[in-house]
Amino acid sequence: MKKMKIKLLVVDDSMLFCGALKKQFEINPRIEIVGTAADPFEAMDKAAELKPDVLIIDFEMPKMNGIEFLKQLMKQYPAPCIMVTSSKAVSERDVLNAGAAAFMNKPKSAAEMQTFCSILGTKAIIAAGNKDKYVRNSAAEGGEVLRAAGSGAKVSRADPELPSKMDIVGAAAKGDDGYIVALGASTGGTDALECVIKAFPDNMPPVVVVQHMPPVFTKMYADRLNKSCAMTVKEAEDGDRLKNGVCLIGAGGFHLELKKDLKGYYVKSAPGEKVSGHCPSVDVLFNSVADTAGSKAIAALLTGMGADGAKGLLKMHKKGAYTIGQNKETCVVYGMPMEAYKLGACAEQMPIDKIGAEICRRLAEGWTAKDLGNE
Question: What tens digit of pLDDT does each residue of 113-154 get?
Fold first, then answer.
């Protein structure tokens, strides 16, 4: 069955920008721009008429700025909105607190447009998956709209899909060494990983991550996640000890491996030859988690080109870990999780917006040989 396209409404008075977006998304099988609007009042009418899944809103608009428009829009047509701007004076915190699902700076040149649209497309897919969370509040509260969980705060504690913090505490305390969560991603992974990690509470068992990214950028990315997630997120350093509530991002140009001694888990971070075409390599991380943590691990392989992580996920699966692959519909590139699925490495495939909650649920409730398909 063919997957329905996500419908976008672009609210921007720049015909050049709107035209560039249309050109880029013409070849995207998952996204369709159903209309454009040059000002907030036209946008209100277009939203009611076209019923878009996600709106792309420029901050600088005639008659009303983006934040004021967003507040008004949510009263009339509550839907995920991604705000974009070319101004350095706009605060991301203010935009997210106003109810936006995401915030992006516009590309500075035509050369940057393709990358911008690739990231924007990922954010739109993730936002559309949360569309049902944009609901009206009661009239007693003035008709204001509840924005999607996690769009401004670190982590929603009201999401009924997530186990309670006490459930996670219980999971983290099981066994002598506790549990480990391992995540791997490549193309499209920066937003996909953020979607997953934002679902984790601050007492989550340790999380280790490899995202294909060059040196320097991994630290910047970790710092960004640290500001938006409940967990403490940092770039991994050699010898870092793992503890509950901490997420380590593998450094660019360094392989990340899980190790264990009498004091518990720690990581080795060291330069090396490329494995499966990458350094850091997801296969290196997943293989080490399989050898060190065995059945006390959960792993998810997310969007990315190629096959890195597929064999490592299979090894984890065979050692009794619970393994998840991101589904085709929500991947920017359905490469790495597809290869893992073809190998039989995935206990299940899931949309990106469900993976974080499922990891929490499995930690709280456990899994059996039947769940793993080993019976």
Answer: 888 888 888 888 888 876 665 543 322 233 333 233 333 333
Count Cβ atoms below 10 Å from residue 51 Cβ, excluding itself: 12
Active site positions, annotated: 186, 212, 308
Q: How many CB atoms lie within 10 A of CB 109?
A: 7
Measured CA angle at 179 (ends 177, 185), to 5 deg: 135
The tens digit of pLDDT for each residue in 45-66 reads 788 788 899 999 998 877 678 8
Q: How many residues does the chain have?
A: 375
User: Which tokens belong to 24?
Assistant: 């880029």
Within 10 angstroms of residue 140's Cβ, the number of other Cβ atoms is 6
The 3-state secondary structure of the chain reads: CCCCCEEEEEECCCHHHHHHHHHHHCCCCCEEEEEEECCHHHHHHHHHHHCCCEEEEECCCCCCCHHHHHHHHHHHCCCCEEEEECCCCCCHHHHHHCCCCEEEECCCCHHHHHHHHHHHHHHHHHHHHCHHHCEECCHHHCCCEECCCCCCCCCCCCCCCCCCHHHHHHHHHCCCCCCEEEEEECCCHHHHHHHHHCCCCCCCCCEEEEECCCCCHHHHHHHHHHHHCCCEEEECCCCCECCCCEEEECCCCCEEEEEEECCEEEEEEECCCCECCECCCHHHHHHHHHHHHCCCEEEEECCECCCCCHHHHHHHHHCCCEEEEECHHHCCCECHHHHHHHHCCCCEEECHHHHHHHHHHHHHHCCCCCCCCCC
The pair of three-digit structure tokens given for residue 31, joined into one six-digit string:
């996204």
Residues with Cβ within 8 Å of residue 262, at least 6 apart in sequence: none
CB 195, CB 209: distance < 8 Å: no
- Provide the β-strand partners of residue 145: 136
Q: Output the CA–CA distances (angstroms, integers) from residue 17 to 47, 92, 311, in the order listed.
A: 19, 21, 42
Single-letter residue type at 371: D
For residues 300 and 261, the answer to whether their CB atoms sit within 8 Å is no
pTM of the predicted model over 0.85: no
